[in-house]
Specification:
This protein has 4 domains: about 5-80, Chemotaxis Receptor Methyltransferase Cher, domain 1 (Orthogonal Bundle); about 110-280, Vaccinia Virus protein VP39 (Rossmann fold, 3-Layer(aba) Sandwich), CATH 3.40.50; about 305-420, 2-Layer Sandwich (Beta-Lactamase), CATH 3.30.450.20; about 515-620, PAS domain (Beta-Lactamase, 2-Layer Sandwich). The protein has helices at about 5-10, 15-30, 40-55, 60-65, 70-80, 90-105, 125-140, 140-145, 155-165, 175-185, 195-200, 230-245, 305-315, 335-340, 365-375, 420-520, 540-545, 550, 565-575, and strands at about 115-120, 145-155, 165-170, 185, 190-195, 200-205, 215-220, 245-255, 265-270, 275-280, 320-325, 330-335, 380-385, 395-405, 410-420, 525-530, 535, 585-590, 595-605, 610-620. The chain contains 19 helices and 20 strands. A hairpin with a 5-residue loop joins strand 14 and strand 15. Strands 6-2-1-7-8-10-9 form a 7-stranded mixed beta sheet. Strands 12-11-15-14-13 form a 5-stranded antiparallel beta sheet, sandwiched between helices. The structure holds S-adenosylmethionine (SAM).
């Protein structure tokens, strides 16, 4: 692995050029776009696969994929983690059963279809879990009539397992006993989901990042899948989920997932169980605040005590307020208004248009004309104002029409609410909220990262368990083979002992034979039926000068010795063919020292019970004049 690729491990968020090329290659050749996935986990998974097949760099891996198209499958299997289970996070499923299903069913007519989607269903346990709790809630008949559960995944391999709905004992462990016996049938070693209910589930390949969502849903389950995607891609998928759900439809996420950027589109139903409900699209609305209309104005002369009290109350009101009559004169300005807007007592009675406040802090006249024409109040929000020599301020200006007791229009009241502090607080609050959200998002993403790592670990544990089981069974086979070898070994040892015993017996017999042959006066030569030498005694060696090992197996009649073997052929053959009786003859020969000798030869047939096995020749030197063998 090159140094730049090694550094990838340290700075997981910065993909190297070669890693980007690998992702582009996967997209171009298989149409799968991993660019929306969280980099750190994606890099880890790809490297894991590369290590398994001993490829060192991303560039080499692209080459490898080009030459070995079969490699795509194990790569996708490694990257798209398939950890799942029945009733995964049992408490959350209980919350769905308790808080979601009753609402969905209540809102429906008795024959209305119920549409659900398990997105990222892996090997199907999630979809079958949903099927079971729906069948429990509706009864099997209604379930078959009304329910459609779409279950999708990007991983074809996982999907084909999901389609079969067939699970091993170990996979079905999270399932309560009674549900297992009600909804599954035992077929051999496996548990298979009931076929009649299975028809309500529709499995298909669907890529959450690229494909359009399934629509008109009452419940959308997407658990432990969004967390592999980066925040931007999650937001896009969630926007599609919002459109996919019916009004008031439910979204059920994994325990480490939450709606980071879509808090307005979904409202939490059970935050702990990550259950949300589709919110109606929010609309902007302005709220109008109305001021209590003032009673009719006095002409200022002979005002009653009552009127004076009212004027005093107006003057000391907490909010800056002015009144303009229908002819456009400034009629009243309370103390707050005089101070805030720098009005003098002399300004009262003047035309508003002649005063600075008619255009500062905001162009008031057009708004007053609007209120006068419509007889409806308006509020001008967030009016920024920087008074000369003062602090910048933010005002909210409310203009309301004034009418007398019989509804005749008198003028307008203009209130100036100083919202600078609220603004500041709001800004601070927004900032704090933003910081909190960022911190939360970071926490969330760290949590998802942990969860992802956890899933990876789980999948590694599963792989290790499988390897362990395989090792155990290989071990058992080896042990059996070992036992078999051991018993073969024992048998061999016994046979060996027996052979050794026989060999010793044979040695003993041989030495016995040798000593018998040695103690005979005559030389002994034994020929087989083909007249080849089998036994050549020491005396024969002494007589003819050839050693036993030189003549062993040699045709006797071809031996180059001092004996005229050609003269022996006929007597030997007749002895071999015809009779038990031996033949004796005397031959002139040359012994090993080159001395002429007379040799008496006795030829005896050697039988083996069924026929002639050869002949025995006894040869003895006799003195030439006597024709009898010399004494030993
Ligand atoms: C960890 S499993 C979760 C399975 C199940 N939802 C659960 O919580 O038990 C994640 C699944 O998401 C699938 N997945 C990953 N990316 C996907 C995508 N872009 N579109 C659809 N499914 C995807 C994977 O193939 C895998 O089966």
């Amino acid at each position: 692995m090159s140094s730049s690729e090694k550094s990838t491990r340290g700075q997981a968020e910065v993909p190297t050029h070669d890693f980007v090329r690998l992702l582009e290659y996967l997209k171009a050749s298989r149409g799968f776009d991993f660019s929306g996935y969280k980099l750190s986990s994606l890099i880890r998974r790809v490297q894991k696969r590369m290590q398994q097949i001993g490829v060192a760099s991303y560039a080499d891996y692209v080459d490898f994929l080009e030459v070995h198209p079969d490699e795509f499958l194990p790569l996708f299997n490694t990257v798209l983690i398939n950890v799942t289970g029945f009733f995964r996070d049992a408490e959350a499923w209980e919350a769905v059963r308790r808080e979601v299903l009753p609402h969905i069913l209540e809102a429906k007519g008795p024959e209305d279809a119920i549409r659900c989607w398990s997105a990222g269903c892996a090997s199907g346990e999630e979809a079958y879990t949903l099927a079971m709790i729906l069948a429990e809630a509706l009864g099997e008949h209604e379930f078959r009539q009304r329910v459609k559960i779409y279950a999708t995944d990007a991983d074809e391999d996982a999907l084909s397992q999901a389609r079969q709905g067939s699970y091993l004992e170990a996979q079905i462990q999270g399932l309560p006993e009674e549900l297992r016996s009600r909804y599954f049938e035992k077929v051999g070693e496996r548990w298979v989901f009931r076929t009649d209910l299975r028809r309500s589930l529709i499995f298909g390949r669907h890529d959450l990042v690229q494909d359009a969502a399934i629509s008109r849903l009452d419940l959308l389950i997407c658990r432990n899948t969004l967390m592999y995607l980066n925040a931007e891609t999650q937001a896009k998928v969630l926007a599609r989920f919002h459109f996919a759900l019916n009004r008031g439809g439910y979204l059920f996420l994994g325990k480490a997932e939450t709606l980071l950027s879509h808090s307005n589109s979904f409202r939490p139903v059970d935050l702990k169980s990550r259950i949300f409900q589709r919110a109606p699209t929010s609309s902007l609305h302005d709220r109008m605040l109305a001021l209590t209309p003032a009673n009719a104005a006095t002409d200022g002369q002979g005002a009653s005590r009552h009127v004076r009290i009212r004027d005093a109350a107006f003057d000391s009101g907490p909010m800056a307020q002015i009144t303009v009559d229908r002819k456009g004169h400034l009629v009243l300005a309370n103390e707050q208004a005089r101070r805030l807007l720098n009005l003098s007592p002399g300004d009262t009675g003047r035309l508003l248009q002649d005063l600075e406040i008619s255009y500062r802090p905001v162009e008031l006249r057009s708004h007053i004309e609007t209120v006068t024409a419509s007889r409806a109040g308006i509020t001008l929000k967030d009016v920024a104002w920087h008074p000369a020599g003062g602090e910048p301020r933010v005002l909210e200006i409310q203009i309301v029409p004034l009418a007398d007791g019989v509804g005749a229009f008198l003028g307008v009241s203009v209130s100036f609410l100083d919202v600078s502090i609220q603004h500041q607080l709001h800004r601070d609050l927004e900032r704090a909220k933003q910081e909190l959200e960022t911190a939360y998002e970071e926490l969330q993403s760290a949590n998802e990262e942990l969860e992802t790592t956890n899933e990876e670990l789980q999948s590694t544990i599963e792989e290790l368990e499988t390897t362990n089981e395989e090792l155990q069974s290989a071990n058992e086979e080896l042990e059996t083979m070992n036992e078999e070898l051991q018993s073969t070994n024992d048998e061999l040892r016994i046979m060996n002992d027996q052979i050794q015993q026989r060999s010793e017996d044979l040695d003993r017999v041989n030495s016995h034979l040798r000593s018998i042959l040695g103690s005979l006066r005559a030389a002994v030569v034994v020929l087989n039926s083909r007249l080849e030498v089998e036994i050549w005694s020491d005396k024969a060696q002494e007589l003819w000068g050839l050693r036993g090992d030189e003549v062993q197996g040699q045709p006797f009649l071809l031996l180059d010795i001092g004996l005229p073997v050609d003269q022996l052929e006929q007597p030997i053959r007749s002895c071999l063919d015809s009779g038990p009786a031996g033949t004796e003859l005397l031959l002139d020969s040359i012994n090993r020292r080159g001395r002429p000798v007379r040799c008496q030869i006795a030829c005896t047939r050697l039988g083996n019970g069924t026929g002639p096995a050869g002949v025995i020749l006894l040869m003895e030197e006799v003195p030439a004049e006597t024709g009898t063998p010399p004494a030993n």
